[in-house]
Amino acid sequence: MANTNQPQTPEQPGPQDQAQQQARKFPLMAVAAYVMAALGVILIVASGVYIYSRSRSGSDGAEFAYSISDDSLDGYLGRAVQAANTTDGIDSPTVTGAQEPIPLELIVDPGVTRFASLYPGDQLNPKYWAEPEWAGSDPFGGPSIPDNFVPVLSTDIFQDFNPTAEAIRIRIPSINLSSSVAELGIVDLGNQKAYQTPNNTVGHIPSTAAPGQQGSGWFFGHLESFVAREGSIFRHLPEITELIKQDPVDVYLETPDAEYIYRVTGTSQIHQSELKLSSTSDAQITLVTCWPPRIYDQRVLVDATLIAYRPL
Fold first, then answer.
1. Of 54, 184, 227, 234, which is most buried by a Cβ count within 10 Å?
2. Are residues 27 and 78 in the same domain?
3. 175, 155, 141, 178: which is closest to 254 by C-alpha?
4. Does residue 98 fall inside a structural domain?
5. Which helix (H) or strand (E) holds 54?
6. Residue 30 near residue 38, CB atoms below 8 Å
7. CB of 206 within 8 A of CB of 184?
8. pLDDT confidence of residue 84
């Protein structure tokens, strides 16, 4: 018996169904177009900001050019006052290069003393005097050296031990920095060689002076490292320029057998192509980080001079 069933043809969508499909496609295409447009705007803005920032890079170099004047450098480094002389059980500092001071008796009215005790300004660091309500807990400042450290001149040669040990830790209390220190190795890049970048640490160039040694020790750290994820140990290092205008800033370098204090004497900014390792005749260090943020073609340098040490 012959099959009389005719093959069924698929039902064609009507005009109303086609309109609904077009309506569903349109929002998706519109959203995609808006997203692409937004990404384009973001890329244009980011490119503009980068180009502008790069064109301005280095223009703030004068802001980082600061150093302690030669007239006040000795006092700033604690050289003006030597070890105390003891007379009748009373310690009195001996001022070098000056005559004996003339005794002076200071008479203060008791009423003035009582009034002065009501205002604690003499307990504040001078940098907070303009806004005492925002005063921090920083000490008064001045060229003081902790009691357990031995003051030295940066040109002194140590007699009790030979400072050859590598640095293992660095501290800068003024910017809340505390980090390990590692010796940077040399990487072969094919047509040239370069030092490793410090990975979440502060890197010391092995060919430069170790802590306590005569000459300059060079230490590098990242300002920021978004791509390589190598940390931002020196993110606050550029702030030291303003800090040393108000208070001394000390850098503590620790080795397995001693700890050294270096006092910052100046800061500067140079282009990366101008950076060259140099040395000095006395014990100094130079801290280096990249600048400005996201551009990194400049280098901020912080120079410090040895002022004290303590054996561990």
1. 234
2. no
3. 178
4. no
5. helix 15-56
6. no
7. yes
8. 38
* CATH assignment of the domain containing 264: 2.40.260.10
Closest Cα partner for 68 from 306, 310, 305?
305
Continuous segment of H or E residues that includes residue 112: helix 110-116
pLDDT at residue 151 is higher than 60:
yes
Among the listed ranges 137-151, 270-284, 291-305, which one has the minimum average pLDDT value? 137-151
Same-domain pairing of 65 and 52: no
Question: Distance between CA 217 and CA 167 in Å, rounded?
Answer: 10
Examine the domain organization and report whether 69 and 199 are in the same domain.
Answer: yes
Domain assignment of residue 35, given as a range: 22-56
Question: What pLDDT does residue 172 have?
Answer: 95
Assigned domain for 104 exists: no
Identify the CA nearest to 204 among candidates 228, 239, 180, 232: 180
Of 256, 250, 255, nearest in space to 306 by CA: 250
Specify the pLDDT at position 54.
63
Calculated CA dihedral for residues 202, 226, 269, 243, nearest 10 degrees:
-70
Taking only the tens place, the pLDDT of each residue in 55-83 is: 656 677 788 889 888 888 888 887 754 44
> SS3 of 282, please?
coil
How long is the chain?
A: 312
pLDDT over 70 for what percent of the chain?
A: 66
Residues 46 and 185 in one domain: no
Residues 163 and 66 in one domain: yes
The DSSP H or E segment spanning 91 is strand 90-92
The model's pTM: 0.70
Whether residue 7 has a cis bond before it, omega within 30° of 0: no
Taking the CA atoms of the chain, what radius of gyration do you get in angstroms? 32
Q: How far apart are CA 295 and CA 205, in angstroms?
A: 24
